[in-house]
Design a protein that fits this description.
Layout: E1 2-9, E2 13-20, E3 25-32, H1 39-56, E4 61-69, E5 73-74, E6 79-80, H2 94-102, E7 106-110, H3 111-122, E8 131-136, E9 140-146, E10 149-150, H4 182-186, H5 188-201, H6 205-211, H7 218-226, H8 230-254, E11 258-262, H9 269-283, E12 293-295, H10 302-313
Parallel strand pairs: 1-4, 4-7, 8-11, 11-12
Antiparallel strand pairs: 1-2, 2-3, 5-6, 8-9, 9-10
Keywords: Kinase, Transferase
Family: Belongs to the ROK (NagC/XylR) family.
InterPro entries: ATPase_NBD, ROK, ROK_cs
């Protein structure tokens, strides 16, 4: 049986899997990322996890390794440029290093793009030729499938959708340094920020009770909303509004067949679906209003499955100068 190795390289957790051609995980392992240890430390962790899952893989014939990593990065040269979540990483030729260490083909891609590939090939996007995947969690990221291909743009930097400006007059500062980005207004971090402010002010007693001494999370907001708490419902209405504005932009930009929502806040889609559709109907031109907004299907495994699928499908090939 032919399989592919997959790595999901995040600033908090490093995850590895072996995946078969049907998108099924055959083996899995994870460890906290040594994010402050520098490239050599993390690369050693990757090699160790690869060795671990290969032991569990049995008779799988490994075709190569696909990596989904926090960006920015250049997928064509296999270079991690300067991810803010990984200390000391700057222009690290990760694909070439691991190709030498593991003696197998290695492909590198932005983690939001690998999740988009996973959903397109094995999840909520199956059967489409054009779709937009949006992950709404700590930040907002995404990937665009256009005419049967992952949209890369120059240096693979296309579709940084979380950094569309959707509230130019806002005082909310985004992690990128700008104000009014979609991420600053509608991410899980933004939702938690607004809810925690209300709880601290005394306006949201149920949320404060649910959160205790910690920050209010999306889970707490969902709990309160199910109890018909007015503050929680208002927070979700605001979240739906901001998400709807951004999604209307994506409809006009990319004309997808489906809008697929994943991530932690994506788990709240059922509570916000009506509000999102209302905003889309108000803001999108009529030709775009019939595009469904649906939940992602693969959960946290989308990135691993998508990274493996690059090996099976040859999503992109490294430039010759990247192969030493």
């Amino acid at each position: 049986m032919h399989c592919a190795l997959a790595i999901d390289l995040g600033g908090t957790e490093l995850r590895a899997a072996i995946v078969d051609r049907n998108g099924q995980l055959i083996a899995f392992a994870a460890t906290p990322t040594d994010a402050r240890g520098g490239p050599n430390a993390v690369i050693a962790q990757i090699v160790s996890l690869v060795d671990q899952v290969r032991v569990e893989a049995g008779s799988c014939s490994i075709m190569g390794l696909g990596i989904g990593s926090a960006g920015p990065l250049d997928p064509l040269t296999g270079t991690v440029i300067a991810p803010p979540t990984l200390h000391g990483w700057r222009d690290v030729p990760l694909a070439a290093i691991l190709r030498d260490r593991l003696a197998m083909p290695v492909l590198l891609e932005n983690d939001a793009n690998t999740a988009a590939l996973g959903e397109w090939r094995f999840g909520a996007g199956r059967g489409t030729q054009s779709m937009a995947f949006v992950t709404v969690s700590t930040g907002i990221g995404g990937g665009i499938i256009a005419d049967g291909k992952l949209l890369h743009g120059r240096r693979g930097l296309a579709a940084e959708i979380g950094h569309m400006t959707i509230a130019a007059d806002s005082d909310e500062l985004c992690a990128c340094g700008a104000r009014g980005c979609w991420e600053a207004m509608a991410s899980g971090t933004a939702l938690s920020r607004d809810a925690t402010r209300l709880a601290a002010s005394g306006e949201a007693s149920l949320l404060k009770k649910l959160a205790g001494s910690g920050p209010v999370t999306g889970h707490h907001i969902a709990q309160a909303a199910h109890e018909s708490d007015k503050i929680a419902l208002s927070l979700l209405a605001d979240e739906a509004r901001w998400l709807g504005i951004g999604l209307a932009n994506l409809l006009h930009l990319y004309s997808p067949e489906r809008l697929i929502i994943g991530g932690g806040v994506g788990n709240l889609l059922e509570l916000m679906h009506e509000g999102i559709e209302r905003v889309i109907n108000e803001r999108a031109m009529s030709a775009y209003r019939d595009v469904p907004v649906i939940a992602a299907e693969l959960g946290r495994n989308a990135g691993l499955i998508g990274a493996a699928s690059m090996i099976f499908n040859g999503q992109h090939k490294p430039e010759p100068e990247a192969i030493q």
